[in-house]
Amino acid sequence: MAEVTISGDTHPVLKDDYASEWMGIEVLALDDGHATIRMTLRQEMLNGFGMAHGGMIFAFGDTAFALACNPANPGPGEEGNITVASGVDINFIKPAFRGHILTAVANRRASTGRSGLYDIQIYAADPDTTATAASTADAQPATLPGGLPADVLPGELVAEFRGRSRTISKK
Q: What domains lie within the chain, and their CATH numbers?
């Protein structure tokens, strides 16, 4: 399993992204139109009910969205552009709690001109369950939703994030 921690060398979007750094986000996979990231829920990320604050889940999904929208290595003619959110929707399905490992899987669904559509699934796993499941995972190179390797077990779906993107000139 990849253990690439957040840094400017991982993706240009992360160079000065202090919020994602504070959240402790790790980048697991990057590809054109795809990103998989994870983080562990800490106490200061919880709401008054002791579950993940919706804003933390949103921010986590938003980071996966940004990584999937923007190329890690911009090609000719792309250097002067950035892709940003033009709108998003999020549906919270189940709560996540302190110590849970969150995994976000972002995939481009459509892209036309300067506009795109992305779906991001956010999963939560209990670290004890994840460790047990990973140690008993089949040795075959199976994949899970979003092309996850079998040793990255995302847990239960806790949120669905849909993002609409727009490519604009960097100023």
A: 4-169 (3.10.129.10)
